[in-house]
Write a structure and sequence with these properties.
The protein is of the alpha/beta class. The chain has one domain (2-116, 167-223): Rossmann fold, CATH 3.40.50.300. The chain is 52% helix and 14% strand. The protein binds adenosine monophosphate.
Length: 224
C-alpha cells in the first residue's frame, strides 16, 4: 500500500501515520522528520535546509526529492509506505509519480486531512515530540504519563521551533499557496479521499483503515 497524507501543518497527519504504520506494518516516512534529522546531524543537506525550516518556508524541491528517493529505495519500503509531508508541490508530486513508475509501482491512495484554522493553532501550540524516538504527544489531547518524558522510550519531549505562532501562520500561508493545488491533482487521478480531521484520533484512524481495507478487498477481487 503506497499512501500519501496531505494536509496543512497540524492536521494530525503525523499522529495518524504512526497509527496506520503500526497497524499495516509499512514505514511512516515524514519529510519533515528526515530534514530535521539532517539539520540535527549537520549534514550538507541539513545546513542548507535549516534556513528554510526556521522561516516556515518550503525547502527547495531538489533537496527534499533526493532525501525521499533515498528513503523509498530502502528495503523496508518494498511492500509500501506512508508519506507524510511529501509531496508538497506539484513538481514534487510529478517526480514521485515518475519515481514510482520506474519501480513498477504507483500511489494507491491520497488522504486529504481537512481541519479548521482554529484547531490547527490549538494543536500546534500544544504539540510535543520525543527527541529520541520521534513519538508525538499533545499537552491536552495526548499527554504523556510523566510530564515532559516519552511513554515509549523515556526520552525528553520538546516543542518544535517552527511551532511558534508566527512561523505557524507562515507555514499555513505557504501551504495554501503551494500545496493546495495538489488536492485537485490527486482528485483528478481518482485516488483522493477526504478525511474530516476535527474528529477524535481513534475515529479518524478507523476511517483511514476502513478505506485502505476496502481498496485492498477490491484489488483482491479484481485479481481473482
Ligand atoms: P513538517 O514536519 O512536515 O511540518 O515540515 C517541517 C518543515 O520542513 C516545513 O515547514 C518545510 O520547511 C520542510 N519540509 C518538509 N517537507 C517538505 C517538502 N515536501 N518540501 C519542502 N519543504 C519541506
Amino acid at each position: 500500500m503506497r499512501i500519501v497524507f496531505l494536509g496543512p501543518p497540524g492536521a494530525g497527519k503525523g499522529t495518524q501515520a504512526q497509527n496506520i504504520s503500526k497497524e499495516k506494518k509499512v514505514p511512516h516516512i515524514s519529510s519533515g522528520n528526515l530534514l530535521r534529522e539532517a539539520v540535527e546531524i549537520g549534514t550538507d543537506t541539513g545546513i542548507k535546509a535549516r534556513y528554510y525550516i526556521e522561516k516556515g518556508l518550503l525547502v527547495p524541491d531538489q533537496i527534499v526529492v533526493d532525501i525521499i528517493k533515498d528513503r523509498i529505495l530502502k528495503n523496508d519500503c518494498t511492500n509500501g509506505f506512508i508519506l507524510d509531508g511529501f509531496p508538497r508541490t506539484l513538481s514534487q508530486a510529478k517526480v514521485l509519480d515518475e519515481m514510482l513508475k520506474e519501480l513498477g509501482n504507483k500511489l494507491d491512495l491520497v488522504f486529504h486531512f481537512a481541519v479548521s484554522k482554529e484547531s490547527i493553532v490549538l494543536r500546534l501550540s500544544g504539540r510535543r515530540i520525543c527527541g529520541s524516538c520521534g513519538s508525538n504527544y499533545h499537552v491536552t489531547y495526548v499527554p504523556s504519563t510523566r510530564d515532559g518524558f516519552c511513554d515509549k522510550c523515556g526520552g525528553f519531549l520538546n516543542q518544535r521551533a517552527d511551532d511558534k505562532p508566527e512561523t505557524v501562520l507562515e507555514r499555513l500561508r505557504v501551504y495554501r499557496e503551494q500545496t493546495e493545488d495538489l488536492i485537485a491533482y490527486y482528485r483528478k487521478n481518482g485516488i483522493l479521499k477526504e478525511i474530516q480531521s476535527d474528529a477524535r484520533i481513534e475515529v479518524i484512524t478507523k476511517n483511514i483503515l476502513d478505506t485502505i481495507d476496502t481498496l485492498s478487498e477490491k484489488k483482491y477481487l479484481a485479481l481473482e
